[in-house]
Amino acid sequence: MDKKEVEKIIKNARDNNKKIDLRNADLRNAVLQYADLRNANLDFSSFPLWCGSFNIKDDGKLVKQLLGHIARINCTDKQLQQWIKKIPKKYANDICKRHDVEEV
């Protein structure tokens, strides 16, 4: 899906007060500065690991997803291993139900 197709879909949805399915859209250069994403399902979207992502707001889904992935990291740093072990495995299981992690 290219930029023109995405813009057409957004305009049509806006005009008809409908939701948009952008699962296959390439949004790499999209400007979403004024987009209202309050009810957007962004599960499994990428999380930018740079300083510009500081202080984002989250309803808990993203935090649980990140903790779930961190809980599954096989880290060689002994001190970090201790922190990772303290993450409730429930988060990993909530996110990845097909790959359950043993409860602690």
Description:
This protein has four helices and no strands. By secondary structure, it is mainly α. The protein has two domains: 1-39, no CATH class; 41-104, no CATH class. Residues 99-104 have low confidence and may be disordered.
Q: In terms of structural class, how would the helical and strand content be classed?
A: mainly alpha
Helix-strand pattern: HHHH
Major sheet details: none
Give the CA-CA distance, first to last residue: 44 Å
The count of domains is 2
**What is the multimeric organization of the chains shown?**
single chain
Compute the gyration radius: what is it?
18 Å
Low-confidence stretches: 99-104
Mean pLDDT: 77
So what's the overall shape?
A: elongated
> Which band does the percent of strand residues land in?
under 5%
Relative helix content = 25-40%
Number of helices: 4
Number of strand segments: 0
Distinctive features:
mainly alpha, 104 residues, 38% helix, 4 helices, elongated, disordered C terminus, single chain
Gist?
The chain is mainly α.
Write the layout of secondary structure elements.
Elements: H1 3-16, H2 61-70, H3 78-85, H4 89-95
Helix pairs in contact: 2-4
